[in-house]
Specification:
about 65% helix
Length: about 450
């Protein structure tokens, strides 16, 4: 083990940092999913994995890349710290106590309105089936229908919205805050149905991870705090597996049959994590014989906001800018994802690399503090969406995708309507009669 640490000093330091994020959550009884902690954890553990150098494409990061990565980390932390400092000066005490339920929320209307995006989701699946002939799970060659060459038009935004339904129905599934038994049962059935249809219609890893991530985050805040010890044990097992496999790989070497098979198994998940970092380093320090992507003057930064209006696409085509996955940054053909800092650098140049993470840390921490006021489904849903995207930033920036802007609109609008409706002085009864007995918790 000591020799492995000496051979992988960067990974060792980064893994220790991620372990510290877990340890301090357990020791000080803090929330593991707080903004600063989740950003530091996901950034360090993924870069630590990348630095294992299990693929020759992952060369050591150059100084400019390290400056960007550490600068983004520091700026995000400073944004989080500033919110805490300002609230403390105003006399606001913050304790991660259990969320307090409120009576002024119409859960029945919430579930009813959630069927609006569900119907849109079904329309998207119908459009997909019209093009492919069946759900992709049952297609003869599903992979051929999941390439960027297949244009599903606006149907793609609809049939990819399974995680939105998981969020909307999921928040109504917990007994602690929703006292209506029949509404909870309907919501749980809809969560299962939405995830199943999502994976049958278009079985991609993004939808699977988002559905699971949304449920885990909701469970953490609406049912029971996820133990950092459980996360730490899972992390240690994963690290030991990576180390053990790398030792075996060195033992067999790449020339033997065992070594070749093992290398193939290892590199599939490894490339998925590491290519974001080697592409980041590759494009920031572009070789002289490669075309350097021009900066977008901040215009493409707002692509996600205007994605479905075709405005952003017109600019990209006119100026020859890359698409969502930056086709010109690929160090290895087919591995085209990159770290969010490259998109920030491309759009806002060097000041954006430090200012944008700071603003995100500030805004997300402010939202996080509102979680521990009287319970608000709107706050929980928006925080769940945003903290997941922040944790996923080592992969690709969510703000550049229009679908997440649409989800945020639904997650804001539906809970707001339900909150306001139940707060009206002359509130009318809900039009749907539920036949089973409704019980409230004390």
């Amino acid at each position: 083990m000591l020799s492995w640490v000496l051979n992988h000093p960067e990974s060792s330091v980064l893994f220790l940092t991620s372990l510290f994020c877990l340890w301090q959550s357990w020791w000080f009884k803090r929330d593991f999913l707080s903004p600063a902690n989740i950003y530091c954890f996901t950034q360090t553990i993924t870069l630590g994995i990348a630095y294992l150098n299990l693929n020759p494409a992952m060369t050591p990061l150059q100084p400019k890349t390290w400056m960007f990565w550490t600068g983004g980390l520091f700026s995000f932390m400073m944004g989080c710290f500033l919110v805490s400092l300002l609230l403390k000066r105003n006399g606001s005490q913050f304790q991660t106590i259990a969320l307090q339920p409120v009576e002024t929320y119409n859960w029945k209307l919430h579930v009813l309105l959630s069927y609006i995006p569900f119907c849109l989701f079904l329309i998207g699946i119908w459009g997909l089936v019209q093009k492919t002939g069946s759900l992709l799970v049952f297609a003869d060659d599903p992979a051929s229908w999941m390439t960027k060459d297949v244009d599903y038009g606006y149907y793609a935004a609809l049939f990819s919205s399974g995680p939105l339904l998981t969020l909307l129905f999921g928040v109504a599934s917990f007994k602690k805050y929703n006292p209506y038994f029949s509404v909870r049962v309907i919501a749980r059935i809809m969560v299962f149905l939405s995830i199943t249809l999502n994976l049958l219609a278009y079985p991609n890893r993004t939808a699977l991870f988002f559905n699971l991530g949304a449920l885990i985050i909701l469970f953490n805040y609406l049912r029971r705090r996820i133990s950092p010890i459980l996360i730490m044990i899972s992390l240690l097992l994963a690290i030991f597996a990576f180390v053990g496999i790398s030792i075996i790989r060195d033992q067999y070497g790449s020339g033997s049959v065992e070594g070749l098979a093992l290398e193939t198994v290892m590199e599939l998940p490894y490339k998925y994590v590491a290519n974001n970092y080697w592409n980041l380093d590759y494009v920031i320090n572009a070789p002289t014989d490669r075309e350097y992507h021009s900066h977008t003057y901040g215009i493409d930064f707002f692509y996600g906001l205007f994605d479905y209006l075709r405005i952003g696409g017109s600019f990209r085509n006119s100026y020859g800018w890359d698409g969502l996955f930056n086709e010109r940054v690929m160090k290895v053909a087919g591995l085209n994802t990159t770290h969010y800092l490259w998109d920030v650098y491309k759009d806002l140049y060097m000041p954006g690399v430090f200012i944008f993470p700071f603003l995100c840390g500030f805004a997300l921490t402010f939202l996080y503090r509102k979680l521990y006021k009287p319970f608000s489904p709107r706050t929980v849903l928006l925080y769940t969406l945003f903290v997941y995207l922040i944790g996923w930033w080592w992969f690709t920036p969510g703000y550049k995708q229009g679908i997440y802007w649409i989800w945020a609109i639904f997650l804001f609008t539906i809970p707001t309507i339900c909150q306001l409706r139940n707060s009206l002085p002359a509130q009318t009864s809900f039009p749907i009669e539920l036949h089973d007995q409704e019980t409230r918790e004390n």
